[in-house]
């Protein structure tokens, strides 16, 4: 099933943007009267019929609206972006496929990247949402300093993944079904001791993601998967 993205269907918008229109008409060869399956990224699926097969502005009429079943838990990952943009794009793509609800990017002392544009990441997220047949697009935040993130995040269950030898508690041992949780993932050089203490003072609990030392993006995806199992 091919999904098309139009975030404003419920606001009365009944046409696809140029990129989606071109794919529907030029690539898939859809014509007037053919059915479309759409998502708005806000939890709704739509069945529609094409009323104008224009490859620049494909118009449609909504026939049916269906709401995606919402899970009880909320999965939020705050992660330091990697130097290699491809790796963070991979993380975003796979996290959306698993079912993350929000991704925040944090600037840490051992940062590999100080600037991050989210436009391309959002496009990757939209593509992953459609590919995995989901109707909800995760919130993707601009990068902020870790201290700012710690002072503004108010989810009740907060964890910081930190690599050391005095860290016996695995994340999976603490997460329960339906939890609203955030997991902090540091850069390749990990969080500094000062950042760790700031997080703990802000209500974060130190956890491990396993015995192996993981790359940043792998650790982020592992955290998403663990949270998703209980979501």
Automatic annotation (TrEMBL):
Gene3D superfamilies per record: 3.40.1280.10, Hypothetical PUA domain-like, domain 1
The EC number(s) this enzyme carries: 2.1.1.193
Single GO MF descriptor: methyltransferase activity
Recorded catalytic activity of this chain's protein: uridine(1498) in 16S rRNA + S-adenosyl-L-methionine = N(3)-methyluridine(1498) in 16S rRNA + S-adenosyl-L-homocysteine + H(+)
Family statement drawn from the similarity comment of this UniProt entry: Belongs to the RNA methyltransferase RsmE family.
NCBIfam families cross-referenced by the UniProt entry: PRK11713.6-1, RsmE family RNA methyltransferase
Protein function: Specifically methylates the N3 position of the uracil ring of uridine 1498 (m3U1498) in 16S rRNA. Acts on the fully assembled 30S ribosomal subunit.
Name this polypeptide is given: Ribosomal RNA small subunit methyltransferase E
Organism expressing this protein natively: Roseivirga thermotolerans
